[in-house]
């Protein structure tokens, strides 16, 4: 019997109350400590970017330049951009760190990302046909997803997705599979939706592959290749972090029925079952945007991510109290588990129904009213 069938409505309500208490306590404590943290990271990210771009024009220092620029792009996307655009630092009143104004060094537009990620993904985490992050329209990631011959390419498509991750995320909002596979979107619709995406893509491509190489003069090829390497580093790392937080073998996906009359407590439990953490030191947590605590992030997406490690023991205690799984392990373990799932689901077959099926109906508050940053 699945977790949803084991818990009573009263237990769901108690879980919601206890997790709300953690969230409210942290919100009440936000202040200068959090402001110092994010401003310090922004300063370090800018230093790495400047140093990286300079070293790319100094042949003996070129490898260090790639490493510095790649690290700056990772910080900009993961610990700064992702978290700022979740509204984690809106309390500061700083226009440069405001979720409605911030834009990041990647091909995706902030507006599109906040819709597909902040709203769709975080509201409907791992719900098939609602959360587009489940497979990104390319991959089969659930036993409940009907198998099609195209899913035989699960593994090579996953490699391609990692390699060009920023571009796949940029076009995610277009839901290309509706045009290419299911024929429910017209070419005219696709072209219109692509206009703002292409505008942002052009800007990014011109900056990394035209402007900075030309600035280097005769060293243009070296700078061009350095930018390719830095972007590749960021893409592969970001995609690996995200996959490890969502797709290891024991992470659940859910049918749409799970969200019917879903209560706040049930929403919290779905986040727990649909997420996974991985262990590491301080540098690992920072470079992953603290998505090494993906469970805590899905429970509290609008809390500053550097707080997740502190509240993790409390979340684990609640899991033990109510018999809920807390999926964590080393980065390597979660990576191997994820790729095992990707390989297995490339073939036809169904192992088991989603854990979230047949959630007890309840007319309490819907989680869609949770204060998620959108």
From TrEMBL:
A Pfam short name: FA_desaturase
A molecular function GO annotation: oxidoreductase activity, acting on paired donors, with oxidation of a pair of donors resulting in the reduction of molecular oxygen to two molecules of water
Region (Disordered): 351-374
A biological process from GO: lipid biosynthetic process
Any GO CC annotation of this UniProt entry: membrane
Residue ranges constituting the Fatty acid desaturase domain according to the UniProt record: 61-328
Protein name: Acyl-CoA desaturase
UniProt lineage: Bacteria, Pseudomonadati, Pseudomonadota, Gammaproteobacteria, Nevskiales
